[in-house]
Design brief:
Structural class: alpha/beta
Domain CoA-binding: 85-184
Mean pLDDT: 89
Number of domains: 2
Helix content: 40-55%
CATH topology of the largest domain: Rossmann fold
Largest sheet: 7 strands, mixed
Binding site for NAD(+): 95-100
Number of strands: 9
Shape: globular
CATH superfamily of the largest domain: NAD(P)-binding Rossmann-like Domain
CATH architecture of the largest domain: 3-Layer(aba) Sandwich
Strand content: 15-25%
Family: Belongs to the transcriptional regulatory Rex family.
Oligomer: single chain
Pfam family, one: Put_DNA-bind_N
CATH class of the largest domain: Alpha Beta
Distance between the termini: 57 Å
Function: Modulates transcription in response to changes in cellular NADH/NAD(+) redox state.
């Protein structure tokens, strides 16, 4: 995998995390036939303050034009380039349970520059089954997929299997991993792991719902 353009440009991680939101908003503006937008427009569309929008976009070398704003298509290209989306990335999903199958069937990957090249599972009973047009393959096929350009591994296994799967991905040269398993993975510094924990996100939402409803309680009240 070539060096990430965002790394070469020294873009902070917090800014990188917001770039996909800007890109989504820009695509929406483009679909509506809007040719230029202001930082305030992007702020409203993404929920990010306009000053922070301007600061984030300055890392891309894009400052807009006073009284005109940002060219929608050009800014979308700049963000796509920074995110490494100006070419296609090959992805393999490991774990063909309900979550893995749902991810395999998600059509949004193709439109965002990601191509599913392999579906894998350690369960031999699943090998050969066709999911979303692709056969489920054994883990032994990982090395061959890397030789064909596999760049990103998605772990959709139970927690108890995730570290073993991660180790296998790393051992064949995969350096970018998206982890849906509810566990923390141990990896070398050269490997980038992004964790998606749905239960954690729901718990955070529960906290905010409780606070909005004025139902916050003290530990003393819980214990009584």
């Amino acid at each position: 995998m070539s060096a990430d353009p965002s790394t070469r440009r020294g873009i902070p991680d917090a800014t990188v995390a917001r770039l996909p939101e800007y890109l989504r908003a820009l695509h929406s503006f483009s679909d509506d036939g809007i040719a230029s937008v202001s930082s305030e427009d992007l702020a409203v569309a993404t929920g990010v303050g306009s000053a922070k929008v301007r600061k984030d976009l300055s890392y891309l070398g894009s400052y807009g034009i006073r009284g005109v704003g940002y060219d929608v298509d050009h800014l979308a290209y700049q963000i796509s380039f920074a995110l490494g989306l100006t070419h296609e990335w090959a992805v393999a999903i490991v774990g063909m349970g309900n979550l893995g199958r749902a991810l395999a069937a998600y059509r949004g990957f193709a439109t965002k520059g990601f191509r599913i090249v392999g579906l894998l599972d350690q369960d031999t009973r699943l090998h050969g089954q066709v999911v979303a047009g692709l056969p489920v393959r054994p883990m032994a096929d990982l090395a061959g997929l890397v030789g064909e350009g596999l760049a990103i591994g998605v772990i959709a296994t139970p927690a108890e299997s995730a570290q073993d799967v991660c180790d296998q991905l790393v051992s064949v040269g995969v350096r970018s991993i998206l982890n849906f398993a509810p566990t923390v993975l141990a990896t070398p510094p050269s490997v980038v792991v992004r964790k998606v924990d749905l239960s954690t996100e729901l718990q955070i939402l529960a906290f905010h719902e409780q606070r909005k409803a004025g139902r916050a309680v003290t530990l003393a009240e819980v214990s009584s």
